[in-house]
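This protein record is not my work; I was only asked to verify it. Where you disagree with what is written, explain briefly why. This is what I was given:
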Amino acid sequence: MNLSAKPTIMCGPSGVGKGTLLKLFQSRFPSTISLCVSHTTRAPREGEIDGVHYHFVSKQNFLALDQCNKFVEVTHFADKSYGTSFQAIQDVIERQQICLLEIHYSAAVKIKNLGIDCNCIFVTTSGGFATLKQRLKGRGTESAQQIDSRLTAAQKEFAFLQSNPGFFDAILYNDRDVNQTVDALAQQFAQWYPKIMKTTASLKTRANVQCTLM
């Protein structure tokens, strides 16, 4: 299946603030981007909605979709499976929005190996691993074991970035001022998706004019 527009992949270790960055971007540029809704065989957690957070399917249905080559990439964790479908990406693109895949770098490698044209962003911090370690410990929301697990995974992500400098099309440094990172992301998207970002800017201008007139 050929996609009618490039999706954007966002990678980066846990703790660099990808979630906060995306929420703030979406609040400033509404209806501009949408996260691709993945399929998973795990059960919904409290507050999760089918079709919004994930497409929750049985292992049998997931396997059937995979065998029919419906997924761009599939990742397995323990006895749970996660997959990004071609259709989920195309659904966002057809809404004239930027399709964003927040996935692990290993999944991004699989997608690129399929020859799918996409933009890749890596979110990090200026201090790299040392800064991330300080952040995670400073939050005080996780146990020492959970922090160690995140840091072990982060080391692999930083190592991949260092070993494959040309893999990513852009690197965002999400430091103390997340608003500056949002500005940088908006500038990058304006280069990759000028029509979508221009439309958003036009709508904002009209809204400001209406507010002024009122």
